[in-house]
Write a structure and sequence with these properties.
This protein has 650 residues and is of the alpha/beta class. Among the domains are: 68 residues, Tetratricopeptide repeat domain (Serine Threonine Protein Phosphatase 5, Tetratricopeptide repeat, Alpha Horseshoe), CATH 1.25.40; 170 residues, Rossmann fold, CATH 3.40.50.11380; 168 residues, 3-Layer(aba) Sandwich (Rossmann fold). 52% of the residues lie in helices and 9% in strands. It has 28 helices and 13 strands. α3 runs antiparallel to α4 and α9 runs antiparallel to α10. It is globular, with a radius of gyration of 29 Å.
Amino acid sequence: MSIAHQLKQALIAYKSNDIVSAEKQYRELCQAYPNHPDAPNLLGVLLMEQGNYDEAEWFIQKAIALKPDVYFFYYHLGLLYAHQEMWQPAKKALSKSLAINPSHGESLNNLGIAYNKLKDYQTAISVFQKALIQDSSNGSIHANLAGVYVAIGDLEQAQQHYMEALKYDPGSASHHRNLASVYQKRNHFIRAEYHLRQALALKPDCVDSMNDYAVNQKNQGNMKKAYQLLNQVVALKKDYWEAYSNRLFLLHYMPDQSPEQIFREHLRFGKRLSQQFYDSSNIVSPIPKTRMHIGYVSPDFRQHSVAHFIKSILCNHNTQKFDIYCYANVVQPDDVTKYFQSLNVRWRDIYDLPDKEAIKQIKNDGIDILIDLAGHSANNRMPLFAQKPAPIQMTYLGYPNTTGLSTIDYRITDSCVDPYAHEPLNTESLLYMSPCFLCYTPMIDTREIKKYTSTTSGITFGSFNTLGKINDRVIQVWSTILNQLPNSRMILKARSFTDNEIQMRYQTKFLVHGVKQEQLIFKAYVASPSDHLALYQHIDIALDTFPYNGTTTTFEALWMGVPVIGLLGNSHVSRVTFSILNALGLAELSGNTEADYIEKALQLAKDKQLLQYLNNHLREIMQQSPLTDGRYFTRQLEKRMSNIKPKGAS
């Protein structure tokens, strides 16, 4: 029997999924015909698919050594390296394949993937475009090219190529999901919802699509639907930590959830995460050194609310006493990222690092205190913190509650947002700042923005808070205020209002309470930070949301000379605006009940003299307060850091 016939028989067994028989035949052929390249190549491919990468590489390399001018041997070698995420060797092997056969579409496609993974985005685009010349109807190539455009922020091109991918692969759930992701990024939530529904129709148990659908519903303000979806996700995949975090974060937007209920859910999460990741033998002890090493871990060293507050600290650390490390888990770096990199910090990009490698870096850096800046917000690294890579761990800023992790020792807060009675509802010990746990520094120069002067046409209220915070009770209270001042208006700005359908939905919520259509002005997402701040010029009074208060929006309004009316609640999320106002000596702008909130808004609206004074002086009041004194705040924080010990230490 000829070797060609024997190879054919082995290949039939392989395609019939009789892997054991195919492997046996390939190995026998390698022994019987040691100088024939096809058997070791095919055996290498089989072993690669079984995850036996070392042996697979040996056989494919043997095939290449026997016949170095066969392009698909190099193609298979490139695939082997890609399976192991070894992108440099993959690039090299695939380039050799194309040197022999420049028109091989799959080599081009996979080479494009390698360049994308290596973050050489322009070369990746060029390679994918060449691949499309060879096969313009290949949905996979269009989808891969779209992914590169997402990485560089060209969402219009990404959308176009995902649509092309669906044109050629209409039954692909992943194409629908990826196109939905682009629509979400472009604030087209209704279109995103359509494609997520399509993805789930094609793959009903896909937890990634369910999680994305939940986020979509949250962005539309449909909290109960989002919660139901996230419950399904965590029931299907018990270690889907991202979905667990999304679920925990969502609870704060739901007025029917008590602080005690929310704490129990965080505690349940922490125990489950610790069961999988915690190992007491890995705990590191502090190493005496001249300067304390402080590490900040965040996905938000970028244009993000967190940046306005962490900037105050990073710019003011005493580098004679502290070495500062930033562990950036940033998906898409921007100019703000570059700004933070330019500071006197040691920068570590950990976005592409698995926990094991990131932890190794943290330990090598000798970090004494590791500070989480994300909590359960997007792109957090909670599993990393569950493994306790630093002797002392803290959480701060990016999340308004406990993490639920016993491995995080302290949570930085203040006595207004978290009175001492709140401590039992935290797995961390509370580390109190005074007078407020926040210190604000605008990320842009706002000196040229003029203050708004109220006209005789009526008071303009406003809220720039995210849509999820504007629940039905908030709308009812705001409607009462608007109805009592018939000439008043309200500007509502949220990224979700890019969709007219969502605008109409929220307009209807106000109209049923008697508000007139002409009293409502909807504003969508504004890309320019300076243009966003300029919109505050058109507001006389900002109305805060409850129970989930604004944070950055409260600071922005005050900085732009716009007073904020708040409602004091019984949890951190419902006490932030009170803490800010209290630090400015303006606690009287915060009500204790809904009726009090309404009365304070109406009184301020009628007090033109006080409004004018606040419009003219609020920024000056802020500048003279601890809320913008980064040096004072950071020295206080450093003092707290210098005096603490790990939880349980004597």
